[in-house]
UniProtKB/TrEMBL annotation:
Matches recorded under InterPro entries: Poly_export, Poly_export_N, Soluble_ligand-bd
Keywords assigned by UniProt, alphabetized: Membrane, Signal, Transmembrane, Transmembrane helix
Domain Soluble ligand binding stretches: 113-162
PANTHER family, A to Z: POLYSACCHARIDE EXPORT PROTEIN GFCE-RELATED
Organism annotation: Segetibacter aerophilus
Domain Polysaccharide export protein N-terminal: 22-109
Sample GO molecular function, one term: polysaccharide transmembrane transporter activity
Transmembrane segments: 210-231
Keyword Transmembrane in record: yes
Protein's name according to its UniProt entry: Uncharacterized protein
Presence of the UniProt keyword Repeat in the record: no
Length: 233
């Protein structure tokens, strides 16, 4: 199966830019602080310290609470929801200069995941450590699409500001690259519809199996009635 077959012999002059996801409540962030003087940075790389009742800096990362905040050593409660990763890096670097000379802050999103459902070879939820993934990447993770899958009407289900939105993308078209749903966001669900032929075949199979089951039940009922009548005689 050929993807983007509307492209022909032309070369795409514009490649869609990756959209970096915003930090959301429920995200887990790995935050590592380093400096020329490791001792000065050590307090900000906790491994088993509890702050204000919240375990911070564990291997599971800093949990972004429902109110969009994290508890960070020395700096206390910080509002981080809505920020891009780079924005938070710059913010923490600026705040930490009061305590650390030339701090280097590295942040990773630990629980970035997407789910692929429907007419794919391997349905499932996939973790994306690098935090960047496209629809084509998702299809690859799901083992590609069988011939019974619709490639022209893939649905992306996305949670945004507490609301659920549904987007469509056609991966047979070069216009897929410019779709706002081509680059996936964390917790996106990709749903691939079966073709009409697959649906029709499934319906026919159901009808055939139902007819067989009905026939078997009818025969069974007849046998039971005959046995009961024989016993009565």
């Amino acid at each position: 199966m050929v993807y983007f077959n509307e492209q022909g012999d032309t070369t795409l002059s514009k490649v869609v830019q990756s959209v970096e996801p915003s930090i959301q409540p429920g995200d887990r962030l790995s935050i590592v602080v380093s400096a020329l003087n490791p001792i000065s940075a050590a307090p900000y790389n906790l491994t088993s310290t509890t702050l204000a009742g919240t375990t911070a800096g564990l291997a599971a990362g800093y949990l972004v609470e429902a109110d969009g905040t994290i508890q960070f050593p020395q700096l206390g409660k910080l509002q981080v929801a809505g920020m891009k990763r780079k924005q938070l890096v710059d913010f923490l670097s600026k705040m930490l200069t009061k305590y650390v000379n030339d701090p280097i802050v590295i942040i990773e999103l630990l629980n970035f995941k997407i789910t692929v459902l429907g007419e794919v070879n391997h349905q499932g939820t996939f973790n994306i450590p690098e935090g960047k993934v496209t629809v084509i990447d998702a299809i690859g993770l799901a083992g590609d699409l069988p011939f019974t899958a619709r490639r022209d009407n893939i649905t992306i289900i996305r949670e945004k500001n507490g609301n659920r939105e549904f987007g469509k993308i056609n991966v047979l078209s070069k216009n897929a690259f410019s779709s706002p749903y081509y680059v996936l966001q964390q917790n996106d669900v990709v749903y691939v519809e079966p073709t009409k032929d697959k649906v029709a075949a499934s319906d026919q199979s159901f009808i055939r199996n139902f007819s067989i089951a009905t026939s078997v039940l009818s025969v069974f009922t007849t046998v039971v009635v005959l046995v009961i009548n024989t016993i009565k005689k």
